[in-house]
Amino acid sequence: MLTYLIIGVTVFLAIWSLVILLRGVRKPFRFSWHRIFFSASLATLMYLYGAWVYLSIHCKFIFGIIYLLTLVYSLLRKRPIRRRHDKWRIKLNIGFGILFSILCVLYFTGTTGFTERIALAFPLKTGKYFVLQGGKGLPANMFHYSYRGAVYAIDIVKLNEYGNRANSIFSKNLEDYEIYGDTIFSPCAGKVIGVKDDNFDNPPGIRKRGPTNLNAVIVETDSCYVFLGHNRKGSAMVKEGDVVTLGQPLALVGNSGFSLEPHLHIQVHKKSGTGLPWYREPQLFIEFDGRAYLLFEVIRPKRIRMVEK
Fold first, then answer.
1. What are the DSSP E strand ranges found in the chain?
2. CA-to-CA distance for 285 and 43, rounded, in angstroms?
3. Nearest residue to 122 (alpha-carbon basis) of 296, 254, 302
4. 264-270 and 154-159 as β-strands: parallel, antiparallel, unpaired?
5. Are 306 and 125 in contact (CB under 8 A)?
6. Do residues 186 and 246 lie in contact, with contact meaning Cβ atoms separated by under 8 Å?
């Protein structure tokens, strides 16, 4: 399964970065700097992009601490004089190091240039959450990038006490996923302009569209359209035409439509007055409670009352 392959690649490359770093200790810094550069760039890449959450998000932080300690050790340790590397190997280390460094920079900057932002309240209340997909376009948000109007979309899952989003690496049981059945609260005040509630919840791993694709709620405000999707069948607590307040319950998190596992999908589009359908309007980059989140970041909701009176 693809999930296990991704986990294997993450763990292998993380260990490889440590091995490369430790091998660099055997030579003076002037002969091994390119190896350390390659190792550090690879380790940073795995820290940012590695699929640690499928094991436990704690593994990411443990790897980061181990790598930093190993790096300090390698820089401070006295090294014996050894012969320098072949020129082709130096060029290879520098080349891959530059490539990995560019990918690390793009994790933060994305490839979409200037991004107009929208401030929302976080639509989930309790526990610790995680951005399973998200970012400023390529390369971090590549799964959404190919879909029409979803370049800044965010997929959110919930973490359990072990730092995983389910009771196993890839459970086939919907109830095993921490976020399944969580209440979705309106991240803004506005008017409900769309509700889909009749699509079935797929078992994890099966991405089958329902009669009307997926369950979702669309909230229109004075400035934007907010789409919250993959909701649980029969869980809608609002109907089309309802005026909702900030923090009002909308539905429950599910796994309807084209989705591998239970999660909340959210994307926002600007009202530009062009008369186009909402999903063809320019998309906005989302900030929750004053902060923007990128791929594989942890979200800890503010413990505040969301409902406006």
1. 117-120, 128-133, 154-159, 183-185, 190-196, 216-220, 224-229, 243-244, 249-252, 264-270, 283-288, 291-292, 298-299
2. 28
3. 302
4. antiparallel
5. yes
6. yes
Note whether 217 and 236 are within 8 A (CB).
Answer: yes
CATH of 117-299, one of 1.10.10.10, 2.70.70.10, 2.20.25.90, 2.30.30.60: 2.70.70.10
Cis peptide before 139 (omega within 30 of 0): yes
Q: Is residue 192 helix, strand or coil?
A: strand
Q: The tokens 């300090």 sit on which residue?
A: 72
C-alpha distance from residue 71 to each of 16, 83, 100 (Å): 14, 22, 18
Residue 2 has pLDDT above 90, yes or no: no
Residue in this structure with the two tokens 């789409």, named with its chain if needed: 227
Q: Pick the closest to residue 31 from 71, 85, 70 (CA basis).
A: 85
- Compute the mean pLDDT over every residue in the chain, rounded to the nearest whole number: 92
Distances (CA, A) of 211 to 55, 215, 237: 34, 10, 20
Q: Are 149 and 265 in contact (CB under 8 A)?
A: no
Asked whether residue 308 carries a pLDDT value surpassing 50, the answer given is: no
CA-to-CA separations, 148 to 36, 152, 285, 309, in angstroms, rounded: 41, 11, 15, 36
Place of tokens 């239970």: 262
List pLDDT tens digits, range 103-137.
999 999 999 988 899 999 999 998 999 999 999 99
Residue range 145-178, pLDDT digits in tens:
887 678 999 999 999 999 999 999 999 999 999 9
What is the reported pLDDT for 48?
Answer: 98
